[in-house]
């Protein structure tokens, strides 16, 4: 048994709205909801074995407020009350607040220390680990190819920008206006071929060993 939570998007800020201005966002209240989730998981019987945090743990506005580190520590402190591992995905809001090189040194870098090889690129957050006999977790890095959180002088950034420019001619790369493939915008991301090849190898290994796989 395991817990799942997504889009906490915490900020110590007054309520607001989403990017489109349509849906109300309760930035400060989200920490209370996280505490309620943690209490609910702690009361589960039989107990849960792990939690999957699916990304966007803090909101992007924290970086503008100079509160990225403090907001993240508040979220991690609540999750730290759990006695089971928490596996983290990285979303666009993590990458608004932190560079990839910084994220690997935060509590959002959840790759276990042993027996969970990821791609050769150490800034790629993809990894896999055995959760139980014949049960494997694969955590994918869906912003492996992205301009977010990436040094503009790096090969990763240049390749990501090339993909965007090939598909999105708009001056504002966050705008999907007129696109046949509207997901080619700067706040989205994708997989490098290296990560896809690695993922294929993990799935072949699990298939050969008759494992079930949870893909996050």
UniProtKB/TrEMBL annotation:
**GO MF terms held by the record:** 2',3'-cyclic-nucleotide 2'-phosphodiesterase activity; ADP-ribose diphosphatase activity; CDP-glycerol diphosphatase activity; manganese ion binding
Indicate the segments forming the Calcineurin-like phosphoesterase domain, all copies.
2-104
Domain of life per record? Eukaryota
The record, for Gene3D superfamilies, names:
3.60.21.10
Query: Could you tell me which PANTHER family the record lists for this protein?
Result: MANGANESE-DEPENDENT ADP-RIBOSE_CDP-ALCOHOL DIPHOSPHATASE (PTHR16509:SF1), PTHR16509
Protein name listed in UniProt: ADPRM diphosphatase
The species this protein belongs to is: Mystacornis crossleyi
